[in-house]
Structures are given as structure tokens and as C-alpha cells.
């Protein structure tokens, strides 16, 4: 149940959603003006490129898909768990995401698409890491599922069905964080261009370090 979600999950989910929003804003405002944090449009663009014979675009879309998928595989390999649980290697995963964003920044500043692939890989790492907890699906890099969940909640509420109100608040928290991240990303990109990615890189890096220290303070083992 959502009512069992501890405070650190709420704060972490909101922060990660904000980071996702910032990265995605950079993707839309950057080199190829496309999403970096989810693959729905990428998959459709790849399908269209296949039909139209635009092999260069098809290769690019395939690289984006592969990068995101690779990030998800890496996250799953490290965390080894489909539900959030203290003691898992979230600190290491966040540090890897931070490193990927740091490496992506100078490449994007040189208009190299490898920067997009590294940033997309970082989003795959993040989305696979923030999966589920106590029956709550935690999505931090795309909002389609969040909007769908909120719509279902409102529909059930209109029918007078019993509702877990904290589920709606979680959805609103994630949506608000992602939207705020988009605003911050757009404002910062106008002034700092791709260097905007340094902020989410620092946030994930610091969070990863703090989590690792907290993990040791709690006396848990990294491999638990």
C-alpha cells in the first residue's frame, strides 16, 4: 500500500523525477530536439525511418533504444531486485548515472551524438532503478503512466469507489517534480546550453554518496 511508503521514497522519487525532467528538456532543446528519457516517440520514429528508407535516422533511433536498454540492463545487474529495499546498491547506481551525465556533457557541447546516447543510457539506469515499492509503480523519466494512474484514480473516485489518496498524491508529486525539472532545464539551457546536464549529474552524484554513507551508517552490507 502507498500508505506504507517511507519519507525517503517520496523525497527520492521527487528528486529523480525532477532530474528526469531536466534531462528531457535538454534533449528537446538540443541537437536533435527529441526525448531522451522515454522511448515511445523514438520507437515510432524508427518505424517511420524504416518505411521511408531513412537509414541514418533509423541507425540513430536504434542507437537511442540500445543505449536506454543497456542502462536498464546495467541497473538490473547491479541492484538485483525489482522492488525498492534499503541495502541494495542504489548508491552505486546513482553514481554511475552521474558519471554518464558528466561524460555526456562535453560530447554534447561538441555536437557529438554520443553525448545523447550516454544521457539516454543514464535515463535507462534511473528508470530501471526506480521501479516499485509496496505496490506503487515509481516512474521518474516519463509521465504517460502517471497521468493514466491519476485518470483512473479520478474515474474511480467519481464512481464512489474506495481510494488510496496517497497514491494520487504520489502521482502528483512525480508529475510536479518532472514538470519542475522541465522548467529548470529550459531556463538553464537558455543560459548554459548543454552544461545544464551538470546539475542533474551533481544531484545524482551527491545523492549516491549520501545514500552510500547512510547505508554504511545503518550497518547494511552493499551486497544485501
From TrEMBL:
Task: Write down the superkingdom of origin.
Answer: Bacteria
The answer on whether this UniProt entry bears the keyword Ribonucleoprotein reads no
The family database entries (Pfam families) matched by this protein are listed as:
DUF1275
- What InterPro entries would the database entry show? DUF1275
UniProt keyword annotation of Secreted present: no
Give UniProt keywords alphabetically: Membrane, Transmembrane, Transmembrane helix
* Entry's transmembrane regions: 7-31, 57-78, 90-109, 168-190, 197-214
User: Which PANTHER family does the record cross-reference, listed alphabetically?
Assistant: SLR0142 PROTEIN, UPF0700 TRANSMEMBRANE PROTEIN YOAK
Please identify the protein, giving its name as recorded.
DUF1275 domain-containing protein
**Which organism is this protein's natural source?**
Phragmitibacter flavus
Amino acid at each position: 500500500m502507498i500508505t506504507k511508503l517511507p519519507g525517503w521514497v517520496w523525497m527520492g522519487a521527487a528528486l529523480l523525477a525532477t532530474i528526469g525532467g531536466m534531462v528531457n528538456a535538454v534533449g528537446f532543446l538540443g541537437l536533435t530536439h527529441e526525448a531522451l528519457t522515454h522511448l515511445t516517440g523514438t520507437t515510432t520514429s524508427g518505424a517511420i525511418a524504416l518505411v521511408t528508407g531513412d537509414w541514418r535516422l533509423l541507425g540513430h533511433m536504434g542507437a537511442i533504444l540500445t543505449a536506454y536498454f543497456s542502462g536498464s540492463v546495467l541497473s538490473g545487474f547491479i541492484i538485483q531486485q525489482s522492488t525498492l529495499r534499503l541495502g541494495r546498491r542504489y548508491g552505486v547506481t546513482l553514481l554511475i548515472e552521474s558519471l554518464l551525465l558528466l561524460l555526456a556533457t562535453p560530447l554534447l557541447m561538441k555536437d557529438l551524438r554520443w553525448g545523447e546516447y550516454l544521457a539516454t543510457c543514464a535515463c535507462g539506469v534511473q528508470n530501471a532503478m526506480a521501479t516499485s515499492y509496496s505496490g506503487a509503480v515509481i516512474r521518474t523519466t516519463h509521465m504517460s503512466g502517471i497521468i493514466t494512474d491519476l485518470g483512473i484514480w479520478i474515474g474511480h473516485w467519481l464512481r464512489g469507489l474506495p481510494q488510496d489518496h496517497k497514491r494520487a498524491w504520489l502521482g502528483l508529486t512525480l508529475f510536479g517534480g518532472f514538470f519542475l525539472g522541465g522548467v529548470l532545464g529550459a531556463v538553464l539551457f537558455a543560459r548554459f546550453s548543454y552544461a545544464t546536464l551538470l546539475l542533474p549529474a551533481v544531484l545524482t552524484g551527491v545523492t549516491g554518496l549520501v545514500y552510500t554513507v547512510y547505508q554504511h551508517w545503518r550497518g547494511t552490507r552493499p551486497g544485501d
